[in-house]
Every structure is written in C-alpha cells, then in structure tokens.
C-alpha cells in the first residue's frame, strides 16, 4: 500500500474521531470507544442471539427474519466467521449491520468490528454513490496463524478501480490498516518508545503487552502496529 493511500485512510480515521469530538493526535493510550463511533453511522453492531456461532448462513437467516425478505445472491455456508458485514441501500442511505462472534475474545471482536467499519467507509459507501439497489456483504475469518481471510460478496458487477483498488485482496489490506489506525492511533503508539526508555529492564515484550492492554487489542496486533510504525527501531 503506497503512502498516499495510507494518508487517505488516516484522514478517514481522523474524521471518525472528530465525529465524536475526539482529537486523533491528542489521544492517549486507552480504549477507543467503538460503540460511540458506530452510533454515528447507519450501522448496527451486534451478535447472533442464543449463542449461535457466527457463519454466513446463520447471519443470513437472522437478517431474513429481521428485515423480512430473502437475502439476494449470497453464497452461504457454516464456516465459522469472526466478522460479517451486511449492507443494503435504501433510498440515498447505505444501511447495514456488523456481526461479531460472542465466543471470541473481546480483542478479536473489536478488531473485527473496526475492520468491517473500514470496509463500510472506504469501499461500500463509495460503491453505493452511483448505484440504486445495492447489496453488499463481507465476511471475515482468521486462520491458524491469526491472519485474516475474507470474502466480499457484491450483488452487481463493479470495476474496483473506480474506488482506487485493484482487487478484493487490496480492499482487505486497506480494512486491516484502517482498523489498526482506528484502534491504535499512531501518535499514542509512539509513546511506547519513550515508555521503553524509562523501563528499567528494557523489556519490549512487557511494553507491548502493557500497550495492548491499554488499547484493548491483542499482543500480536499491538506488536505488528509498533513494527509498522518503526517504534523501538532506535532501541535495536
């Protein structure tokens, strides 16, 4: 992903913060208020009732009952998901629902929700601008190495280049970058370097774990974020 694209995504994240009167650059290490952010958009964040496992099929069945009509052109299966985003355009508004799986750790559920919000803002809204009856879904799962694998279902043919991406894979990388920017703001993350300098044992793992706890993200997500921002590079 080039620097211009990263900057554009960062600007979108800043807008999300500004909507709830938070300054992205003045945000200290703490839990990002995702629920307040979702409340600013026509998006509901929820889990399937009665402890049901999140899968494309279960999400589709739930939505069919809730919205009262059959889900169009959706390939459904029982494969376990971490996140699922459904959107449909009603009039001028692209409304939707984000599902996470209640059985998963809170840190993963938060990342999944942020990832899906990224798709909504970066990809689905732009696609909806010149479409009438648009229906879009995206499903997110994690493999054994804790890497995500996702699938986007689009009920109409689109030229992805119209929204500045070459493929679905690029959309996934952008949604991951959005989630990292949203949940672990860069200026707040850079405080980890100063924290390490004042830490007697100079134990990077302990510092990463501390910041992961403050942001309520996984250790691996925090580690990747600090590496991407080149934090600690002077400590090597």
How would you portray this structure in words?
- α4 (about 105-130) crosses α5 (about 170-185) and α8 crosses α9 (about 220-230).
- The chain has two domains: about 5-185, no CATH class; about 185-235.
- A five-stranded mixed sheet has the order 1-3-2-4-5, with helices on one face.
- With about 240 residues, it is of the alpha+beta class.
- It contains nine helices and five strands; from the N terminus they run ααβαββαββααααα.
- The protein has helices spanning about 5-20, 35-40, 55-65, 105-130, 170-185, 185-190, 190-195, 205-215, 220-230; strands at about 45, 85-90, 95-100, 135-140, 150-155.
Task: Describe the structure using short key phrases.
236 residues, alpha+beta, globular, 2 domains
SSE blueprint:
Layout: H1 3-19, H2 34-38, E1 43-46, H3 56-67, E2 83-90, E3 93-100, H4 106-128, E4 135-142, E5 148-154, H5 168-183, H6 186-189, H7 191-197, H8 204-215, H9 219-228
Parallel strand pairs: 1-3
Antiparallel strand pairs: 2-3, 2-4, 4-5
Helix pairs in contact: 1-5, 4-5, 8-9
């Amino acid at each position: 992903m080039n620097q211009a694209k990263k900057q554009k995504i960062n600007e979108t994240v800043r807008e999300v913060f500004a909507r709830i009167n938070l300054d992205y650059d003045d945000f200290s290490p703490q839990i990002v208020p995702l629920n307040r952010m979702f409340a600013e958009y026509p998006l509901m964040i929820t889990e399937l009732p009665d402890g049901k496992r999140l899968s494309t099929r279960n999400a589709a069945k739930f939505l069919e009952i809730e919205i009262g009509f059959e889900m169009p052109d959706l390939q459904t299966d029982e494969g376990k998901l971490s996140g699922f985003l459904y959107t449909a355009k009603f009039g001028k508004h692209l409304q939707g629902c984000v599902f996470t799986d209640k059985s998963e750790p809170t840190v993963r559920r938060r990342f999944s929700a942020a990832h899906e919000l990224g798709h909504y803002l970066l990809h689905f809204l732009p696609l909806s601008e010149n479409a009438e009856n648009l229906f879009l879904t995206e499903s997110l799962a994690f493999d054994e190495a804790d890497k995500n694998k996702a699938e986007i279902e689009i009920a109409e043919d689109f030229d992805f280049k119209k929204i500045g991406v070459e493929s679905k894979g690029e959309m996934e990388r952008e949604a991951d970058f959005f989630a990292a920017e949203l949940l672990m703001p860069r200026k707040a993350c850079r405080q980890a370097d100063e924290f390490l300098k004042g830490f007697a044992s100079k134990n990077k793992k302990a510092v990463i774990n501390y910041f992961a706890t403050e942001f309520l993200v996984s250790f691996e997500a925090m580690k990747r974020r600090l590496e991407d921002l080149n934090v600690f590079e002077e400590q090597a």
